[in-house]
Amino acid sequence: MSKAAKQRRAPAERPKEILEAALALFVEKGFAATRLDDVAERAGLSKAAIYLYFEDKMALFQGVIRQAVISNFGTVEALAQAHRGPVTEILPRLLEFMASRIEDTPLPSIAKLVIGESRAFPEIGRFYLKEVIGRGLPLLEALIARGIAQGEFRAVDPGLTVRSLIGPMLLAGVWKTVFEPIGGERLDTRALARHHADLMLHALRAP
Amino acid sequence: MSKAAKQRRAPAERPKEILEAALALFVEKGFAATRLDDVAERAGLSKAAIYLYFEDKMALFQGVIRQAVISNFGTVEALAQAHRGPVTEILPRLLEFMASRIEDTPLPSIAKLVIGESRAFPEIGRFYLKEVIGRGLPLLEALIARGIAQGEFRAVDPGLTVRSLIGPMLLAGVWKTVFEPIGGERLDTRALARHHADLMLHALRAP
DNA sequence: CGTTTATAACTGACCGGTAAGTTAGTTATA
DNA sequence: TATAACTAACTTACCGGTCAGTTATAAACG
Asked: To 10 degrees, what angle do helices B158-174 and B189-204 make?
């Protein structure tokens, strides 16, 4: 190891380090406003070195999104599928789990990036559509359908109901990333999740 | 009028024309990716002429947002305040009105712009926060509070309830502007509005 | 009524800063 | 001494913003 301040000999970690630095900066300043020189500095190497690991800026962005998405997703699937009890009990847990993700991880910032840049980079949007929405929605729809089948819920449209369920969580994410940083008053995402779960259970309860 | 293909002598209309062109391009490509030369071409004049009417690109952006917001807002206020009947009847109308705005106006695209650019241009975000959210939220909260006072609704937190109410509409706007253009399946915003209104009324109904 | 003059509206060509992407060369390790 | 990892310096293209000059209109004048 010697005194090698210039970190060498660990190139396997390099892409991850670059992705981490890029995530922080993309989240902070957006895609266009993030300079590769800054990403490089933060990752502790030169801009040219980034090009050793990523084709171009776009590929780096894609990598960041991919990394953040896959690392933050498996758990939801587990949570929703493992639980075999009454849906009435799962729903509040699920919403509170989402709230914790919104409060404690960069997930909402990622979503904001996707929202803002997917017109310019449709591949990003399609990736998110496929990997997050395409996996998450069916999961939740199945849950609602199960609630109906088990006689807990009235017979509503599962697709629309899922939108009603997660809409406020999207709102919370947008609020946290867009309006709180510029002086909007703090929103208690977990309280919203609990409250919304309560509303939804009242709304869905079979007569 | 003669054959003056070069339009002159109507400078009062010019700012509006420029704003219209800019709106279309900002909505299509985002702020950073929109070239002033393109705005100029679309508005039928030269880039330099834009600077006769707007301080800089940022002021133009601000003008676009301001224009779109004020032209699309007064009606909501009217709708919510004029109606003196039971809140139970107003709520579905209100949601369906929002749905029509989302489907038939560039409002969701504006919102998307604000979401995407407010980190880089906090003034934009604050303007939206003040003019749209600062006016819309209290209006809706008062409506919920009235529903409670009139004995139609159970005693819920009006602030959180309003978030539950409009969350799905935000979701619809995001879906329309972000995911439909890149191959996401069409979402029937009005159906969602009706369905969500139904859920909310069930959720809020006093026992 | 034609001609000059004043000026508002507008433009083409340019400037300067910026940042993505490249390359030729350097350094550390095996 | 071979080579993988890395970098400083460069090239290139773009685009926001400016400015000196041009054109269309209207007012002033003879």
From this structure: 160
DSSP state of A185: P
Q: CATH says B14-56 is which class?
A: mainly alpha
Could you tell me the residue ranges of all domains in chain A? 14-61, 72-204
Which positions 122-181 of B are in contact with A (Cβ < 8 Å)?
122, 125-126, 129, 133, 156-157, 160-161, 163-164, 166-172, 174, 178-179, 181
Using CA atoms, how far apart are residues A173 and A99, in angstroms rounded to an integer? 9
Q: What CATH number belongs to A72-204?
A: 1.10.357.10
CA atoms within 13 A on the CB side of B164: 32
The region, left, alpha or beta by phi > 0 then psi within -120 to 50, assigned to residue A30 is: left
Of A129, A46, A139, A47, residue with least CA distance to A90 = A139
In order along its 207 residues, chain A shows pLDDT tens digits of 333 334 455 567 889 999 999 999 999 999 999 999 999 999 999 999 999 999 999 999 999 999 998 887 666 667 766 677 899 999 999 999 999 999 999 999 999 999 999 998 899 999 999 999 999 999 999 999 999 999 999 999 999 999 999 999 999 999 999 999 999 999 999 999 999 999 999 999 998
What top-level class would CATH report for the domain A14-61?
mainly alpha
Enclosing H/E stretch for B106: none
Interface test with A, best of B118, B132, B177 (most A CBs within 10 A): B118
Q: Which amino acid is at B47?
A: K
Q: State the CB neighbour count (10 A cutoff) for residue A81.
A: 11
| Interatomic CA distance for residues A180 and A187, integer angstroms | 8
